[in-house]
Amino acid sequence: MGIPTCNTIAAIENVAKTYGDFVALDNINLNLNLNRGEILSILGPNGAGKTTLINLMLGRLSFANGSINVFGLKPGSLALKRLCGAMLQVADLPETLTVKEHIHLFQSYYGAPMSYQKVIEYAGLSEIESKLTKGLSGGQKQRVLFALAICGNPKLLFLDEPTVGMDVEARHALWKAIQDLKAQGTSIILTTHYLEEADFLSDRIVMLNQGRIIQEGSPEQIKAQVNTQKIRFTAEVDIAVLATLNSVKRATQDKHFFELQSSNASATLQHLFNKTKTVEQLTVTSAGLEEAFLQLNREQNNSVQQ
Amino acid sequence: MDNLVLTADDINTKQPSIINIYLMESKSELLRLFRTPGFYLPTLLFPMMFYLFFGVIFSMNPATMPTYLLATYSAFGVIGPALFSFGVGIAVERGQGWFDIKEASPMPASAYIISRISVTIVFSLVVIALLFALGAIFGGVRLYTTQWLLLAGVLIIGSLPFCAIGLALGLYCKSNSAPAVVNLIYLPMGFLSGLWMPINFFPQLMQDAANLLPAYHFAQLSLKVIDMDVGANIWIHLAVMLAYFAVFMTLAAKAYYKKDKQ
Amino acid sequence: MKAKIFIIFILLFVFFWWLPEPEEQVDNKKSDVFQTLNASFIISNANIYDGFEMHKSSSILVENNRVIKIAPSIDNPSDYPVYNAAGKALVPGLIDAHTHVWGGALSQALNFGVTTELDMFTSPESAKPHLISRTRIDNTQQADLFSATILATAPGGHGTEYGMEIPVLSSVDQVADFVNNRVNDGADYIKAVYNAKQAKRQHFPSISLEILEALAKESSRQNKMLVVHVDNLISAKHAIAAGASGIIHSFMDTVADDELIELMKQAEAFIIPTFAVQASISGHSRGKDLAEVSAMKAFMSPMQTQQLNVNFANFGIPQSAFRNSQRTVLKLHKAGIVVLAGSDAPNPGTTHGVSLHDELAWLVESGLTPEQALHAATGAVSRVFPVGSRGTLQPGALASMVLIGGDPLSNIADSLNIEAIWKNGVYHQRKVYDLDQRFEPPLAAGEISRFEESDELTSVGAGISESTDQLAGGKSAVTKQLAMRDGQNRYLKVTGQVNKGFSYPWSGITFVPGKSFSEGANLSELAYLVFDAKGEAHAQPLSVLLFQTGSFTPAVHQLKISREWKTYKIPLAEFEEIDIRQVVNISIVATTPFGDFEFGLDNLKFEK
Fold first, then answer.
1. A196 shares its domain with A234
2. Which of A19, C236, C404, C539 is 20 to 30 Å from the Cα of C474, by its Cα?
3. Which residues of A touch B259 (CB under 8 A)?
4. In what residue span(s) does the Amidohydrolase-related domain sit (chain C) (predicted)?
C-alpha cells in the first residue's frame, strides 16, 4: 500500500496561512505524536488560528508553502476522511431530517461504522433520536454533530470547539463521552478556548496565539513553565505592604482574603511572617492553567509589541 | 498503549458500498423534498397553472396549442426543480455551514451530485406525469405511446444541463441571494426561449437571440418529438445543450474542489 | 425499498400506457392503402353483395375499372394490389331512385356511396352535361345522373310552384310534342304528376286522365317508361291502369287494396315510396338527427346540414298517415311488387346521399329485411330503370362499389359505416369538411360596381380583373373597358376570343369578393348575384364560376344572355359544390363556342 508507518499522526512543516494581510498561521512546525486513546488540545484565544489548523488538517484549506500530512496521507483525500470524524462549528443543521436519519446517512459513508445504539449512547441522544433537527436546542444540535463525527468509528476525531453553547451539565456529559471514546482507543484533536476543558481532557496541549505556537506539552509541563504560586490568607495588614514583600508579583484583595502571586513562595512567606503575626487560613497552591495561559499570552503579546 | 500506527488493514478493511451511499443520500434528499411543501408545491403548481391557463383555457388554437404548450411547459416544469434544487439548495446548505460538514465527511462528491440528480429526476417525473395528465384530460392532447415516452425521456435527459447550471449557481451564489439569482435566470430564460408561448410569436431578433439559450434548444428537442419544432437540425440542439452541460459542470467542479471557500 | 421502486415502475408503466393515443386516423392511414386500389385490384375475404345475392367471404377481381368476377378465392397472376377486407361488406354503389339534381348534388351523393342518382325533375340545361359525362369512364368525381328532365304537369300543377318556367299540358294534343321535347332533352324516362278528379285532396290542378293515358302511350311509342307522382290510392290505380311503369311516392290517405295490387301485378309495375321525404312531411324530424351523427357530419357540406335541418311547411299530415304509407309498401312488397329506394332529396329534411341511407332504414322499419332494402337501392333498380349494370357487381359492370365496416345485411345502420368508395373502379377520397373552420363575417347585400368610374375598382372586395385560361396554359384572350350604354351611363364591355388550348377554355372577367386574392369572402347571408347583361350573339352562353379558397374546381352556373339588356339573378344556392362561406373569386366568362365574343355587364350587385 505504501502507507508509511509512523508514530506521528500529523506532520506539519513550515506551514503558513494568510487571509489577505491577516496572518492566521505563521510558519507552523508541528509534529503531532499521538497514541491511541490520547487527546490533544489546541488552545488559544479567538483568532489564534485553532480552526485554521484543523481545517488545514482536514484538507479544507489551501496553504502557501510547507507540507501537511495526516497518517502520511494527503489532507482531504477520501482514504483519510474515512479514518477521521470531524465536528465543526456549524451555524445550522438541515432541518428536514430526523436525528436518526442523519446518523444513518453518515454511517453509510464508512466501511465499519459504529453501531447506531452506541452512537446514540455516546452522544446522549436516546430521547430525541426520532425528532426532526428543526426544533432542537443549541446543545442538542451540538450533540447531533458529535454523533455524526463519531458514527464512523474514526481512528482520529477532530472536535472544533465541541462544547460551545452548552450548559454545564451538557458539557460534562460530552466530556464524559469524550473520555469514553478515548478509553475505546480513539485519538482526538480538540480545539477549545475553555482552559478547564483542555486541562480536564488533554494528554497534550498546543497553545496558539496570533498564529504561532507558544507552548507545547502536557498540561503539567505547561503549568510548570509558569513558576508562579498563589498564596491566600486573611491578615490584619495593609495591602500596600503586601505588594512590597519579596518575590511578590501581584497582590490583590478579595473581601477578607488577600491573594499574592509569588515567584518564590518560601521567600515571600518568610517576609510575610516577619511583617505580621495575624496571618490565618493560609493556603499555597501552584498556578492553574488559566494563570499559565494568561501569563504566556501576556509575554507573547509583549514580545510582539516590542 | 499502542502507537497510533496505521496498518494496511486499517485502510483496506471494509470499504463502504458506493451504491449504498448513493441510495442513502438520495433517500435523504427525497425525504427533504417531501418535508418541504414550500418548495415542491409552487414548483409543481406553477407549470400546471400556467399550462391550464395559456394552454387550455385561453388557448388561441384548441387543435394544436395544448399539445405544443404541453411540451414547452413540461420543459419549463422540469427546468424549475433542476435549477432550484441545485442552485438554491446548495447555496443554503453552504450558508448554514452544513456543506462544510459534508465536505469534511467521507461522502464522495459524486454522491452529492448523483443523489440530487436522481431526486430531480423523480421530481421531474412527477411534474411530467401531472402535466401529461392535464394535457390528456383537459387539453385533449393525443400522442402515440412512443411519443409520450420519448417526450418524457427527452425532458428528463434534457434537464441535466440545467442541473449543471443550478449546481454552478449554488456553488457560486450566497445563500440569501441564490433564490433571486435563480429566479432571474429561470423566468426570463423560460419566456425568451418560447416556453410560455410559441417562439414564432416573437420578433425575429428575439427568435435569433433565443438560439443562445439552452432552454430554447431544450424546448425545440421536446417539440421535435411531437413534430412541432421550428425544424432546425437536432444535432445543433444536442450540441448546444451538451456545451452548456460541459461548461457549467466544469465551473461547478472548479468551485467544488476549490478550497478556502468564503 | 426494492419493492417500492418496483411498484413505482409499475405505476409509471400503467400511466404511460393509459395516456391517450390519437384516434386511428382512419381516413389518412387507410386511404393510403386504398389509394393503390385503382382500375385493377383485388379485394379479398369480403362479404360481397352483388345487388342480388350474397357471396360470403369472397374475393372480387376488378380489372380495367370493371368487375371481372366474384369467387371464393382469386389467383393474382398480374400481381394486382390486394386488400384484405375480412369482416367487411362490399356492396354495389347505391342508386337513389328519386332525387332532384342541381348544383353539387352528384358529388354530395358520391360522398356517401350513392354512385347513381335518378332525377325526377330538373332543368334540361343543368342535367345535360351530367347526362353526357355519365357515359365517360373517368366520371369518377360524381354520381352518374339519369333524368326525367322536365315533369309533365297541368298549368299551375305541382312542379310549377318552384318559379322555373316549364311547359305544361292542358290538352292531349300537346302530349306528343312534350314527350318528343323530353326525348330531345335527353330524358331517360318521362315523369308525370297526376291527381285523380275523384281524389279527396285537390292540392294543385292536375292533368286529366286522358292526358295521362296519352302520355303513357306516347312514352311507350318513344320507348320511354312513364313514372307517375301520386299521393292517393285512386290516383295510383288510374296511373297503373293508364299504363305507367311505376308510381312515385307511396300514398298516405289509406292502405293499398287488393285491386291496386292486382293492377300492379299485371302491369309488373313498381313503387318508389320515398319514405325519407314522407317522414319529413309528416313531422318526423329524422333529418335533424342525421345531421348530428358525428360519423357523417364531417362528410356533409354545410348546405347539406342545413337541408337536413329544414322543416316542411306544416302540411298538417299526422304521423298515423305515414303509417298508412308504410303498411301499403309492406303489403305491396309481400305481394311481390318491386319496391325501389328513393329519397326525394333535397326536399326539406332530406339531402343527397345521406337520405338514401335513411330511406334504407325506413324500408327496414317498414318490414323489409336489410337485404331486401339494399336490393331496393341496387339490383332492383337496375332491372327496372335503363341504368345498365349500375347497382350491380355483375361481371362487366363498372366497379362502382362501397366497402362497409360491419354487416349491413343484418344491421342496415351499418350502411353508413363507409370505409371506402370506388366510382368506375377508381378509389374516391371522401371529401371532408372542416367543421371548426372560421370564416370572414358575412358580406352584406349591396352594389359591387355600376361601372361608371372604373372598370377595376369595386365597392366591396378587391376589384375586377381580366381572366382567361392563359392562367392554365390556354390560349384564350380578353380585354375589358368601360363603354357608353346610353347617353349618360356606362357599362363594362368585355371582348375576347375563346381559343383551343386548355381542356376547359374560358375568357372573361373575375371579381375578388374578399379583401385580397387569398382571402375568401363569406357569401352565406346573400341570396343572389345580380347583374345586367347583353350579348353580341343571340342566346349567347355565359358561365358564372365561383371558386372556393384552396380549390381549383369551380362551381358553375350557366346562362344564356340575350342581345338586349336584361337583368339576371343568379341564386347563390346553385353553387353548392363549393363552400359559399369562402369564395375567393367570382368569374363571369365565355366558355363556348370557340371564336370571338363580346358581352356587356352592368350594375353588378349582391342581393338578399
1. no
2. C539
3. 59-62, 76
4. 90-425
Cis peptide leading into residue C346 (ω within 30°): yes
- The answer to whether C11 faces chain B, any CB pair under 8 Å, is no
The mean per-residue pLDDT over the stretch A122-140 comes to 86
In a domain, A25, yes or no: no
Closest-CA distance, C26 to chain B, in angstroms, reads 15
Q: Tell me if B145 and C12 make a contact (CB, 8 A cut-off).
A: no
Question: Residue A111 is nearest to which of B2, B15, B107, comparing CB atoms?
Answer: B15
Same domain, A278 and A161: no
**pLDDT at residue number A291:** 65
Whether residue A135 is found in the same domain as residue A267? no
Q: Domain residues for A233?
A: 227-286
**Which chain C residues in 419-458 lie under 8 Å from chain B, judged by CB atoms?**
436
Quick check: is A221 in a domain?
A: no
Chain A interface test: which of B4, B35, B114 (most A C-beta within 10 Å): B4
CB–CB contact B21 A109 (8 Å): yes
Closest-CA residue to C545 (of C519, C526, C572):
C572
Whole-number pLDDT of residue A268:
87
Does A177 lie in the same domain as A275? no
The list of chain C residues with pLDDT below 70 reads: 1, 24-32, 163, 294-295, 313-315, 435-438, 550-552
Average pLDDT, chain C: 89
- Per-residue pLDDT reduced to its tens digit, C494-545: 999 998 877 778 899 999 998 877 778 888 888 899 999 999 888 888 999 9
> What confidence score (pLDDT) does residue A303 get?
58
Query: Given the DSSP bridges, would you call strands A229-234 and A257-262 parallel, antiparallel or unpaired?
Result: antiparallel
Give yes or no: residues A47 and A192 share one domain: yes
Q: What is the average pLDDT value for chain A, to the nearest integer? A: 82
For residues A266-290, give the mean pLDDT: 81
- CA separation for the pair A4, B3 (Å, rounded): 14
Same domain, A95 and A193: yes
Look up cell 366520371; give the residue: C139
For B29-81, what is each residue's pLDDT tens digit? Answer: 999 888 888 888 988 998 999 899 888 887 666 677 888 899 999 999 999 99
| One domain, residues A53 and A147 | yes
**A118 HSE (CA, 13 A, CB side):** 12
| The pairing of beta strand C246-248 with beta strand C226-229 | parallel
Asked whether residue A296 is assigned to any structural domain, the reply reads no
* Residues C21, B136: C-beta atoms closer than 8 Å: no
Residues A126 and A154 in one domain: yes
pLDDT above 80 for A45: no
Cβ–Cβ < 8 Å for C244, C226:
yes
From its phi and psi, is residue B194 left (phi > 0), alpha (psi between -120 and 50) or beta? Answer: left
Within a domain: residue A295?
A: no
Contact, C212 vs C248, CB < 8 A? no
Checking B63-67 for CB contacts under 8 A at 24+ apart, the result is: B63/C436, B64/B228, B66/B135, B66/B138, B66/B139, B66/B140, B66/B141, B67/B135, B67/B139, B67/B141, B67/B142, B67/B143, B67/B226, B67/B228
How far is the alpha carbon of A118 from chain B, nearest alpha carbon, in Å?
19
Give the CATH number of the domain where residue A203 resides. Answer: 3.40.50.300
pLDDT of residue A306: 44
Are chains B and C in contact at 3+ CB pairs closer than 8 Å?
Answer: yes
Is the confidence at residue A251, as pLDDT, over 60?
yes
Q: Which structural domains are found in chain C, ordered by start?
A: 25-91+391-430 (2.30.40.10), 94-390 (3.20.20.140), 446-607 (2.60.120.260)
- Number of structural domains chain A divides into: 2
3-state helix, strand, coil in chain B (%, to 5): 75, 0, 25
Is the Cβ pair A36, B14 closer than 8 Å?
no
Answer yes or no: is pLDDT of B111 > 60. Answer: yes
The overall pTM is greater than 0.90:
no
Position C29 scores a pLDDT of 47
